C-alpha cells in the first residue's frame, strides 16, 4: 500500500503542512500564514519542486486547510498527522477520538498558546475529511519515560497530584528522531547513552538511555532550560516577585518579557536570530558577542547537568537551525565541556555541509554528530504506525507491537 501522510502543524495564525510519501525525498510542503487577515497567503513547494505563492485574503484555518487539501487531493493522503505540543501525560501518538480531543483540551492550561490553535486545526480537518484517520503526535510524549526524580519539582505535593504541576519536556519528536537516527549512524541503534541539543529559535537538550528520554531541559512549559531566541530559559523564580515589588509589573507583563523579549534578543538588544548575532559579533558588537557566549555556556551547563541521567555518555547529537548550521556554536559549546572527553575535529566541524549528517569528533572520546532533524517525517511515521495498528484485525496479547524506528 502506498502511504502518504499529510502532516499538519497549526499555530494561532499559521499552518505548516507537509505531504510525506513513502519515497520521503518527494516531499511537498508549505506554510499558510497571516490567517484571518487580508494578507493571508500560502507559500510552499509544489510537486514539481517549484515555488508556490497563493493569496487567500481573510482565510481562516478551515479555508486555508481546504485550499491546501484541494491542491494535494490527487495525492490521496491516507491519513492526517497533527503535531500537538502538549499531550499532558499521554505517552504515545493517538487516534483522534472525542476522548483524546478532550485530553488535548484539558492540557490547554499547560500550553495556552499552542493547544487551542491545534484544536482549531483538528476541528477543521475532522469536518473537511471525516473519512480519513487523524492522529495526534505529541511533543511531550517522548519524555513520558522520565523517572519521577527527573520530572518532579521540589514543590508542595498537591500541586503535582491535584494540578499536574511537573516537568513534561517538549521537542520530543525531534529528540526521538535525532537520537534514533544518530544512534543508527553510530552503529548502536537505540543503545547506550546520548545527549541531544536541539538548537533553533526554541532550544532544548535531552538525555536518552537505550532509546528512551530520561531527562530534558524544558519543564512544565517550553520556557525552562537553555537560552532561546526570545525565551530566557532558567532564571531565579524570584524574578517574578522582584519585578512585581520593584517595578510594579503584573504577571502578564513578566510572562511576556520572559517568553518574547528575553533570550538572545534580550541579551543582545539586537536580534533573536543567531546568524545576525554572529555577523554583528564579527563586526565588534559586544552585546551580540555576550549573547552568543551566554547561549553556549548555558547550553554546556545544561548538557553537563543532563549527563547525570545517563550511566555513561556515548555521544552528543546537534540539531535544529543553529545546531545543524553553526560550526562556531558547536565549537564554543564543546569548549566548555573539556572534562567530558569530547574531542572535536575542527576540520570535520568546519567542513560539514549545511543540512547534511556527519560525524565531527576526532575519533577519541564520546562521539559528536550533526543530525538534521525531521519532525514531519517522524510525525508521518508515527501516524502510519497508529493507522497500521488500527488496520490489524486483532493483536494477540502475547504479540509485541512493532516499534517505530
Ligand atoms: P529553527 O528554529 O530550527 O529554524 O532555527 C532558527 C535559528 O537557526 C535562527 O536563530 C537562525 O539564525 C539559526 N541559523 C540558521 N542558519 C544558521 C547559520 N548558518 N549559522 C548560525 N545560525 C543559523
Automatic annotation (TrEMBL):
Q: How is the cofactor bound?
A: Mg(2+). Can also accept Mn(2+).
Kindly list the positions annotated as binding Mg(2+). 9, 375
Which compartments is it annotated to reside in? Answer: Cytoplasm
Q: Where does substrate bind?
A: 83
CDD domains with a match to the protein in the record: ASKHA_NBD_AcK_PK (cd24010)
| Cofactors named for this entry | Mg(2+); Mn(2+)
Question: What is this enzyme's class at the first EC digit?
Answer: transferase
Sites marked Transition state stabilizer: 171, 231
Q: What keywords tag this UniProt record?
A: ATP-binding, Cytoplasm, Kinase, Magnesium, Metal-binding, Nucleotide-binding, Transferase
User: Binding positions for ATP?
Assistant: 16, 198-202, 273-275, 321-325
Function recorded in the entry: Catalyzes the formation of acetyl phosphate from acetate and ATP. Can also catalyze the reverse reaction.
Organism per entry: Acinetobacter cumulans
This chain's protein is named Acetate kinase
UniProt record similarity statement? Belongs to the acetokinase family.
Phylogenetic lineage: Bacteria, Pseudomonadati, Pseudomonadota, Gammaproteobacteria, Moraxellales
Name the Gene Ontology molecular function terms of this record.
Answer: acetate kinase activity; ATP binding; magnesium ion binding
